[in-house]
Request: fold
Amino acid sequence: MATSYPPPRPRKKLRVATASLAGCFGCHMSLLDIDERLVDLLEEIELDASPLTDIKAVGPCDLALIEGGLCNAENVRVLRELRSHCRFLVAVGACAINGGLPAQRNHIDVRDCLQTVYLTGLGVSRGFIPNDPELPLPLDKVHPLHDVVKIDYFLPGCPPPADAIWQFLRDLIAGRTPQLGHGLIHYD
Amino acid sequence: MTDAFSLDGYDVPFTGGQTILQAALAARRYIPHLCYHPAFRPHGSCKVCTVKVNGRTVASCTTPARAGDEVESESPEIRDLRRNLVQFLFVEGNHFCPSCEQSGQCMLQAVAYDLGVTRLHYTQMFPDRPIDASHPEVLLDFNRCILCELCVRASAEVDGKSVFALSGRGIRKHLIVNAESGRLADTNLAVTDAAVSVCPVGVILRKRRGFAAPIGQRRYDPKPIRAMDEPADGEEG
Reply:
């Protein structure tokens, strides 16, 4: 006897947030670099808060792709908000994973650093250290994301190649643990 | 009949005096390693080549091959252990691959790729290690040192100069330069010395040669380190 099944429900799209903290937007550019595959991707995901949608407040999400490390208090606030709203956080790129270029100030005292940049540096005249209350306070050290919240996945590269981002997202969408082979895993 | 041991179920032949690592590499069975170099006596310090021999963990670079031994190398347990060692090395120093001229030619990076390291796991120490740019032809960037002592061995055994040494114990252990001033310019190091080309990472760099090989043509770009024919010796490609 033939069994009748209910018709398949339309697949729910994954809700994805993206953010750039102490990064350079290079990882976002690499995401856009998956080119026409973006059309396929948008069949599977919908974007929530992201510089690409300009939505500022994050809602409940399945996934957040986070570029950049933590160099100021605002970065930490945004990261904690993403953690509390998203099931999985992905540290995307060198800065999110090990602090990257911004972390190369970590062996310099933050006061000395600001003084050199804004007061005593070469070519600086009548400088002052910015202190507008709207500016987030810098942290004394730049931190990778996993120093502050639990990170579920790491996607290295500076930036990760578009093919690596594509493969990573395909694996996640298909419910597989992402695997990056030779040529897709690199730190530079 | 030649003697052989079993490496992950494969028979690996060996000749008298060979260590497990030497025999495995000769048989084209890669075991990840950092401080081992075929031109120098095995050192056994980085422990990345650790294997299990009949259930005991040993450094394969210093353990003599023995007929009939069961050697386990690619098991999840041993790979996890190696991954931890490599993560320790990354957090102990300042390893910023995107701005390193040895990226793509670096053995630490290539071994980390092989082990599938995508995260640091541990808290970075961000040590303060000033570079030494005093020498006219050679730059020292101590931030990337993994304490393999290959430069120490090459300088003493090949160059006969003993320009480098390790000083301190435990986490304070670090590479030093054998001059009263501590500066490389005050040694008799020459750019042609074996010690200059042996560094497997990006500590000892020839000046004015940075980024000589374009991305795609660097040593470890075409194929992963375990598929390489010859062990790398740090010479820029």
Q: What stands out?
A: Helices of chain A lie at 26-32, 37-44, 73-85, 94-98, 110-120, 162-173.
